[in-house]
Amino acid sequence: MPKTRTTRSREQHVRLFRNGRNQAVRIPREFELPGHDAIIRKEGERLIIEPAPPTSLLTVLKNLTPLKEKFPRISELPAEPVEL
Predict the structure, then answer these.
(1) How far apart are the two ends of the chain, measured CA to CA in Å?
(2) pTM higher than 0.85 for the full model?
(3) 54: nearest Cα among 33, 32, 30
């Protein structure tokens, strides 16, 4: 059975340019990705650019390094009355 190539429903010719030492491509508005970060990978001769998954608060907290400084001890203060 011969391989069939899937047709791309949206395709556009773009120009490559240099940005300092990096090669860059200007992404047309209709191909804009959400957010501020993206993931890029190479599959054969193709470059695949996808939106980066959102970072959860748990992931951020897990990657924090512990503080090395000691905090002063806080004496327990009596609770102040609260009017409801």
Answers:
(1) 77
(2) no
(3) 33
